[in-house]
């Protein structure tokens, strides 16, 4: 088999796993947009905030210690103990649920029946607020995140592909795990929305707010529920991306990776987020593989948007998005 | 009537406080404590501020005149950096430290026009080394082209003087900063016979899958990195993932801090980077720093960055600024110097090992002197290597000199082109 073909196959495989990482971020956007029609600009910052909180709990860091020290002249930093990961993750989930309650109480409740653009602007404000709170709460330094997920080259994939093709493919074990976790997440979300009372209520609200209210579904509860689930998805994305390159402000910028995925997959489809992620992942890796020697690399950031733009021309609602026809 | 009285009170206050403000030495800091690059910006800003605080607290300022510090947040954003400059340019800033190559490029013509000196230590426009064109910009003790040349000279030492047939990949931040070493490495490739492979990474650099697949395919002997922010730990992690020999992976001095290696853990062991100064707290200056700044609670930020690589760099930049101010006072015979006088101090700065020892920083930085023909100092740098188990950087070489003859030739060509574009006649100011 020619080397170019083997390398292209390796790039495709890596594109698929990278696509799952993008899809993890996109899922949070889809959940909130589906249930409330809000494009949540703060989703990336939520992933950062969740990851910061998890590392803070794991390392026994005292929240707001820098602020407390500055105000009272103390030298507080750590509680003196480390929290096991299995406890730190549920504790972080509770924080994300609390955040969802606060978002509903202080932002969404006051913006019922407002235009989508107003709600979008509110999430921009939320993003800046969370960025600042995250910094004050846990500090701005780069933090290592280790939840015990394996990292590095997969020996099994290397061995198998070497036996088949005489060339061992590289694939990061963390991304294989990410693919498995994303599959579980999608399965859990599907089961939740199809087979539970709250899930059905969530779908009812997504279909028609007024109709859902008229049959006694609490819009406020559904919003808290949606934002809590989006918070948990943000935590999963934060863990995966944070394990890759540390927890720091740049983690919030992974949201930029989700936008083309959403344009491709549609803003209202969970399978669309996954398929969109895979298309973007494979597309950008193959484009870089073939075009990088000609145009000098650094194509990943803009190629995804170019691909999304082409899709927009032919299918503005995305691959799986709902086609909205408004008649006047 | 009330308004007139209020206006009169404000005017009187301004007159009363005016001379007091003039009797301070204004050292602004264009810092970035927020944004994607905050993790690198914070320790630098802390080190810069703490050293100036030490000079005020211990020595009562410079030549008896207290230092006034101001900080303007740029978030490593060029537009915001220019806004910061506009806000402080009328407040007698003695020297600007933009800490960003993008901001530096924007400020070069402005500072030339306004007569405000700028110090871009280890970053910025490399050809500013030619003081006949860039009268107001200084980039001592080393610049990017020095850094690239030092790395190649180190690799020559490692390979018994020949890089013939070797393949070197440059993994660079796809920005003005990251592209700076390409001309030097290209010229050196022709001279030493190695093959140069350039691989760009878009900012911020969190996703580098394609780049490292390419490195895995191309199998370079060495990878040289020009990264910043999250690009650094991501690259080191990816190198560890593909089992690239870490001792053959060398970063510039902006890719060699604790923030770059700690997130990777044991995988970063053996990674190398340039060092333009020493690091750690084994210097006598830290006794004074502890007494006058840290224990007194007068430290900048949270006080937990003291002694780190980027804190040391900020402290070094402040130390060089203070020494230049002293030189300016000596030249002009006045304590309350102006930005123009500060420029003269910088243009005649001489740093000796005796002076460094006297300042409590023995063997911390290279000895060098500045002249109109050379605003760039010695260009020498060391190589440091990360010990993941001990969690510390170890210096593994002495000072390595760059190929200054070639660099000065390239700098001359670039700076003269700048002068021609701007209808300038190159000349020394003093």
UniProtKB/TrEMBL annotation, chain A:
GO cellular component, one term: plasma membrane
Localization in the cell: Cell membrane
Top-level lineage group: Bacteria
Bilayer topology annotation: Multi-pass membrane protein
Alphabetically ordered keywords of this record: Amino-acid transport, Cell membrane, Membrane, Transmembrane, Transmembrane helix, Transport
GO biological-process terms attached to the record: amino acid transport
Pfam families hit by this protein: BPD_transp_2
Transmembrane segments: 12-33, 45-64, 84-107, 119-140, 176-196, 217-241, 261-282, 294-314
CDD domains recorded: TM_PBP1_LivH_like (cd06582)
Classification via InterPro entries: ABC_transp_permease, BCAA_transport_permease
Protein name: Branched-chain amino acid ABC transporter permease
Family under the similarity heading: Belongs to the binding-protein-dependent transport system permease family. LivHM subfamily.
A GO MF label: transmembrane transporter activity
